[in-house]
Amino acid sequence: MPLSPPIEVTDSCLETIPDGWHLPGLKGVLIGENLLQERVSQLAEAIRQTVPPRQPLVVLALLSGAYMFTADLVRRLQGDYEIDFLGVSSYGSGTQSGDLRWTHPMQTELRDKHVIVIDDILDTGQTLNKVTSKLQTERPASIRSCVLLEKRLPTQRPCPFDAEWIGFRIPPLFVVGYGLDFGLRFRQLPFIGILDCEDHERGTD
Ligand code: 5GP
Ligand code: MG
Rounded CA gap, 125 and 161, in Å? Predict the structure, then answer.
């Protein structure tokens, strides 16, 4: 069965924060744990159906935000493949996606392999655009990408990147949890949450 379109999420009705997870600054739950896990299973199944059997495959997770999503995804993606990590950080100030800085190198070589890049969230699309352009220079057999979240852009500006597999489409809010941080905090939340005050724009990637 093909993957259903991204699940549209709004912030009009936040779920309450589960017991034990009331961290200072956290306002509410945008995507609860059960729905997240259900969607991760659907994404894994869609990837499994698309990837050619018996051909070299690399699942390449972008550090750090995609670590928890990747851990859950690969546990549902049976088969023989490599898992590697690439650290990228966009520096620059405030809300702007700046130039990419490589913070952790890959171990593997990509030539003639199928590559699936996993990221936490597609915002302006700059990160995945630049990462996949750079990976193309290694001449992989194919590059596809899977993101848990895609932000609806506040304007009609087209996103410069289309991911093959998308979990949820969310409002243009700053989100945390399930690997995504604000100042390195909140990554441990098993759900996607939003913060009390809306003046933070970026995490630490
Ligand atoms: P893009 O290059 O698509 O604008 O940004 C992608 C990266 O910015 C993501 O991989 C993520 O690390 C970071 N980012 C974008 N939006 C958010 C957000 O709402 N929360 C957090 N914590 N990080 C974000
Ligand atoms: Mg990131």
Answer: 5
Structure tokens at 182: 């604000």
Q: Is 205 in the pocket of ligand 1 (CB under 6 A)?
A: yes
Closest of 203, 136, 126, 205 to residue 161, by C-alpha: 126
Lookup: tokens for 129: 């655009």
Whether the ω angle into residue 64 lies within 30 degrees of 0, i.e. cis, is: yes
Confidence of residue 101 (pLDDT cuts 50, 70, 90): confident
Taking the centre of ligand 1 as the mean of its atom positions, its distance from the CA of residue 205, in whole angstroms, is 6
DSSP string, 184-195: TBSTT-SSEEEE
- What pTM was computed for the model? 0.93
Element spanning 46, H or E: helix 33-50
Does 123 participate in catalysis according to the annotation?
A: yes
